[in-house]
User: Fold this.
Amino acid sequence: MNDLSPKGFNGAREAHEADGMGSSPAKRGRGTTRSVVKGATTDSEAICGAATHGAAPSVSASRCHLPRKRGRNPSPHTLRSIADLGNAELVSRDRVSQLEAVAARYAIAITPAMAELIDGDATGPIARQFVPDTAELVTLPEERDDPIGDHVHEATEGLIHRYPDRVLLKFTGVCAVYCRFCFRREMVGQEGAGVLSDTALDAALAYIRSHTEIWEVIVSGGDPLIVSPRRLERLMTALGAIAHVKVIRFHTRVPVVAPERITEALVGALKASGKTVWVAIHANHAREFTEAARAATARLADAGIPLVSQTVLLRGVNDDAETLGALMRVFVENRVKPYYLHHGDLAPGTSHFRTGFAAGQDLMRALRGDYSGLCQPTYVLDIPGGHGKVPVGPTYLRCTAGEVDDPHGGTHSLR
Ligand code: SF4
Assistant:
């Protein structure tokens, strides 16, 4: 398949769920506020929070070049502002004023676990995912606030019904971290964001009850595992009482970015009578699987929860075969079956993360050729406008010609 635009349809997408997901930041000064309890003192606030205000002229994309400083004690708190990042020496002082313009538009949050990984590697793959960049101020004409068309399929507030047999519930508008490539960045992290209001949740549950074709509920956001076990239990009890719902799937980044939150109580809350619960873990680089992240993932797996992965193909983070292959192996080693590799969505200010489709297909061929079958995700695109998710290759079989390609470029006749 060829690229769809001069640079391919670049775009970076988060990856939380298979069918849409989370939202984005405090659109500080711009639009879209959603169905969350204003000022909700949700359980989420312990970790999340919307960040910052401020203004400064945009400047071109640049990366900070900081001295390596391994051995320094990282902040014990989530970093939520440019000032925090400056104090933690994750951005250089001379860039602080430039980055305030980014912070004025998109939320910032970097957990201690991720800050520790960034420390001393300010231009590396972890920093690139979480440290703001002035490139985010560049919005291309094709980029859009709702890149995968959630709004088109919104059945009730916070409930997306895009495919017949499943719905996506945006349970919260906050996350433990705010990824710079988030495909719902115009929603998540808004000031006052919290969990879905009781009224909106009741309406969503009523919709699910009345649509017997709904077999699966995907709980996303934001990040649903930022919510307290008590609140999750209430949700699971409600979903557990709906007979036709058989599967409940959570999409989360918490096991890797805030592994301490995967407590026994939280794992215990992810149960619903008669339902099978799956968890999809979003990670983009093998380094995210710290010892603590591996332990958190094991707590979920040991509880009998099947785990799948989600990864966003990101330029400068995982767009080479060795890095991507290493990530897939780490997933498998941690009992997480590689599921989706998302082509970047057309979220605003994310063009610096997007690769072309041809590059993504080359990576998939490399994985197919050199890595275990267990390490193969499906490379997918959420078609802009809400038309659904489709695999985007590569394909190997050419029916008309009666030929098949092998992963290393050889062509073989089937006749
Ligand atoms: S964790 Fe939050 S910010 Fe990151 S991609 Fe998911 S929804 Fe977006």
Observations:
- The longest strand covers residues 276-282.
